[in-house]
Amino acid sequence: MKNIPYGKQFIDNKDKKSVINSLSHDLITTGPYVEKFEKKIKKFLKCNYSYVCNSGTAAIHLAMLSIGLKKNDIILMPAVNFIASYNMAKSMQLKIYLVDVDEQTGQVTPGKIQECINYNKLKKIKALIVMYNGGYPENIEKIYKIKKKYNFFIIEDACHALGAEYKYKNKYYKVGSCKHADISTFSLHPLKTITSGEGGIITTNNHSIAKKITLFRSHGILRNKKMHWKYDIIENGYNYRLSDINCALGFSQLSKINFFLKKRKKIYEKYLNELKTFNLNLIIPKYSSDIKSSFHLFIINILFHKLKKNKDHFMKYLLQKKVIAQQHYIPIYKFSIYKKKISSLIGSKKYYNNSISLPIYVNLSKKKQDKIIKIIKNYFN
Ligand SMILES: Cc1ncc(COP(=O)(O)O)c(C=O)c1O
Fold it and tell me: What ranges in the chain are assigned the alpha helix state H?
């Protein structure tokens, strides 16, 4: 039997046709598929502005640039996240404060954000990055209240959460609608809800932020509308454009998103039913009943210290059985590039010691999932 990866794209003939079709257009970048894809995203998420770019990392960088962050501005971000937002903030010489995460979900909480603000005696906070680890958008209503209190921007690193929804005052909103965040970012990497090969999405409802995004995405160029050969550079921008070839794939994938979400939910529920009461040392994070997840990851927490084992032992055991589990993520302060001393971040430490992501993807068969569940149960026996 082949290895079972923790994630995998789903590509069908319609996707292939769409890509081939894009190749016969006159413009294979900055062409019709970019516009079509952006319009479709806007309609799906119900936001005012949506743009594509060539990675989730680029989307996060564009978000930071377009809200006007400058050297020494204070930004808060989760201590546990993929490195993209930290790297981008560092490259802009921002003052970064890592917020501790919940030991089960791996997400920042309102309490932990407030703790970070109080402990560091922070005054002029410019922005907060939140990340919906695994695709479960937790605590949006309460975090929005903190935003209002301190008047900072919220950037959603929603790279796991395309298709997820949250409840705010009894109404459901899609993550990316930007009703309770200033700007949202998504990744279109093959392991995410939908893919364009590589790619990213950035959404906002703010007109001036939107204008900045398009400027920074393409070298800071402002073209003269009547004389196409004349242009000015009004920002130090980048080439973060996504080609029409990628957009053709993304466009076709977005048509299938509800099918993808349904399949992922079914896999999530099977894991949940089989593992939730299986063993006291295996904990499945409890998410709020008010959210509709994108089910990007299935995260379990194992109390290894109680089993007198450690995570490496478990990961090696899974590997031997051809199951490729994953770590989402190694806390940022553990990397060599992180030079500051950390004081507490107890939740992040516990989360890192205990959490593992099990395989979940559209085409994961029942047979393979049964096998994974059996392998996990055998570990405890
Ligand atoms: C939470 C999170 N943030 C940011 C990124 C960066 O996205 P990309 O790989 O498309 O640059 C990823 C992708 O791995 C991610 O999972």
Answer: 13-23, 32-45, 56-66, 84-91, 110-119, 140-150, 207-217, 244-254, 257-275, 304-307, 311-320, 346-354, 366-380
